[in-house]
Design brief:
The complex is a heterotrimer of chains A (about 350), B (about 280) and C (about 300). Chain A is about 25% helix and about 30% strand. Chain A is an alpha+beta fold. Chain B has about 280 residues and is mostly helical. In chain B, α8 packs across α15. Classes of the chains: A alpha+beta (about 350), B mainly alpha (about 280), C mainly alpha (about 300). The interface between B and C is large, with 105 and 106 residues. Bound molecules: adenosine-5'-triphosphate and magnesium ion.
Chain lengths: ~350, ~280, ~300
Amino acid sequence: MAVVETRKLTKVFKKAEEGAVNDVDLVTRDGEFLVFLGPSGSGKSTLLRMIAGLEEPTRGDVLIGGDVVTDLPPRARGIAMVFQSYALYPHLSVEQNIGFPLKAHGVPKPKRRERVDWAASLLGIQHLLARKPRELSGGERQRVALARALVREPTVFLLDEPLSNLDAKLRASAREELTSFHKRVRTTTIYVTHDQVEAMSMGDRIVVLNKGIVRQIGTPHEVYDEPADTFVATFLGSPPMNLVEDTDFIAGFRPESVVPAEMVRGPSAPIRLRIRLVEFLGSERILHGVIDGGRFDGRKVVSRVATAASGGLGEGAAHDFAVPASEVKFFDRATGKRAAPRELSWR
Amino acid sequence: MGGPRRSPLTRLGRWLIVIGFAALLAFPFYWMAITTFKQTSDLYNVEHDPFVFNAAPTLDHLRLLFRETLFLRWFWNTTVAGAAVVAITLVLAVPAAWALARLTGRFGQQLGIGIFLTYLVPPTLLFIPMSRVVSWLGLQDTLWAIIVTYPTFTVPFSIWLLMGFFKAIPRDLEDAALVDGLTRFGAFVKLVIPISVSGILTVVIFSFTLVTQEFVYALTFISSAEHQTVGVGVPIYLVRGDVYYWGSLMAACLITSLPIAVVYNLFLDRFIAGFTVGAVK
Amino acid sequence: MAVTGAALERAAPRRRRRVSGATRLGVALFSPALVYIAALLGLPLVLAFLYSVGDVTVGSVGYEFVGLENFRSVVESPSFRRALVNSFVFTIASQVIVIVCANALALALRERFRGRGLVRFLILLPWVAPISLGAIGWKWILDSIYSVVNWVLAKMHLVNLFDPPMWLGRPALAMASVIAVHSWRMIPFSTVILLAGLTSIPKELPEAAAVDGAGFWRTHFEITLPMMRPIINVAVLFGVVFTFTDMTVVYILTRGGPYDSTQVLPSLAFQTGVLGSDLAEGAAISMFLVPILVAVAALMLRVAHRAEVV
Ligand SMILES: Nc1ncnc2c1ncn2[C@@H]1O[C@H](COP(=O)(O)OP(=O)(O)OP(=O)(O)O)[C@@H](O)[C@H]1O
Ligand SMILES: [Mg+2]
């Protein structure tokens, strides 16, 4: 088990272009499940591949277990990786696939068998050992890839969107399995995804990336409730945080904080919304409205309310809502960075 | 199957074209077969209907071919040269194709096309200087002359063919092998090559058949009959003076052509993919 | 949003240079092939050029630069002019025959039918069998006395069996025979290339045209042919190279005769440079293949380039 650290890690693919990864400093905790989250093209894979040693950094260093490994090839880093495509060797059986890393490291055959059986039983794929990868379903392939990664008992697991090839239902159960699997082995894991649900539900901490820059590192609670800037605020949450611009700052509040006025206790800011559109999602409804009157007249605001609590709310009508004062976050208008709380006058 | 129904006339036309061409294109081989088994007196008689056996079929021509000519020797020479050319081609082309396929960006592609274009350089442009090179190497009139020079055709085309195969291997696979404990070269040997067996087999067949088909270099560099390949030995040395032993000659042509044709046919689609230069997706 | 790339310090210098191991390996793997190609294709190519502007014969050791002397004497010789014209006749005539036949055959073979595998095998025979052997087969078929062609024609009362046409013995007939045999050899090759192009045309297109009421010929000329343009180009380009530079068919059927009437540039170069031991003139004759090859290579690059862009 080990800690992964990056120091000013940078990758510039083409000179004169912006870097794919820029000066990333981060340190994992031992045994942690760290998630890289960001939109497509934000540099998550590049960062992960530099940690793996598959991509040569333009600048900066990678440390694993306290040692600088920047110049070591992937095989010498004690890591294992699961690829988005799973990268199962098509010409080898499942058993040979799982045994491949052991064979490459010169583990003798009897020992190899034993480890393969162990890894296969851990993931419940003993019955598939004789098959070829093309004879497996997506979920089975993912397990084989996982078994191949863990068979060597690496100090660090690197996973690049391993669930993105699965259908929605399988993805949910695979998520759960991965989490419980991590709880059992407690190996430091770095997990790349652009799916915030995966990030929130699986990560001990989340690294939010955009354009190769780390925007925030924190627990799911921290990044959701206390976003470091407007990017994080709008990237996480669905629908995203409402942002209302004032002269020198931006006020943000999540759709679920916009509740019918009669349900709010304590200090809160009242707003009147004219509802334009109602989306019904079963247990809850998404209300798209515009502010009616006051300083922010005409701004769009989205509210998310439990279906049970929104009986009288219909399209076209104006209703009184309120946002609890503690739920309003403030950002600097120039930098987008988080700013100190202040008084917000709505009128 | 499928598609709009064609009128009977179109279908008839299609059948006529197919059967007509098949008959025309295959006719010389049918003729070789007939000639092989006809008695000499039957062959050289203008009055006889040449399409049927006017006298009992005979194995005389085959006997003559195998017992009294250098045919078997040529056959053996061709096999040896073929195996050697295949080996040289693989050793040179497989690593080079992989290196080119993994060269990202336009440069790799352009270098690949450049190599492919050298395949267009014909033997008839180079046979004169090449015969000098061969004699400098002291290889004139030996089988080595063609073993050393034939890879100038097989290597460029094979690099091009294999590049296509290697490019189709997902990069992730190689990366996975690196993470799993192999060096880059190890990944090439233990992963890329086993995955590409069918591509490599294609190159083997292509190179071997080329050795059987090439005529110009063998004719130029090799001057004694016993060092020849089948492709030159049969049409040039099986004729004594002006006397053509048509029966044996045709037997030799048939015996050599058919196996090559069968094997080549199996790999045809892959060769064609190489020839279409990406004009077909 | 205002937070764009603030932390980016592009000017920061590299701390150390890491020579990429992957690059070194790539060079190591590529160079043997490159060295081989340079030594056995590049060097002879340079030599071919040097010989064509020098004074060399098989026996000689020295080399003397003579400029365009060889070309002058070559161009002045009637047999060269004859061969130059013949080369073009040979190439153009056989390519026209080949492309027309190959188009028809590819269209006919397009749809699957029972026995297609066998038909394909038969059709391919001329291409895959060694051409020197195929040509010797034709030499027998076109034999001056026992030609089966003549026998059939005589049965149809088209020729006199006792004074039959000498297919390889009369200038015009010999040229026609050589062209026919070479076309016979190239049709299969062009057919399979065109077939590859045909199968890559989405089936929906001709079907859509049929639904729109276009007939067979209309569909063919307005949809199928234009879509096959690039692949027809490829087939023609290869065909031109394989024909213009070929000497096997001519050499085996006629040795360039009668009276040089079927001599083409490659066979003349062979006769002059190899059989006649005049390396310089032989090389000079071969040099006349270069413009064609360069043109074909340039066109080929365009095809490849376009295929890449599309
Ligand atoms: N080999 C490469 N050469 C040039 N540019 C590259 C290369 N690999 C990635 N990039 C660029 O670097 C940027 C980051 O890519 P990266 O693959 O790391 O994104 P990502 O966050 O993993 O996206 P996704 O969620 O789509 O996988 C992108 O703009 C991409 O175009
Ligand atoms: Mg990615």
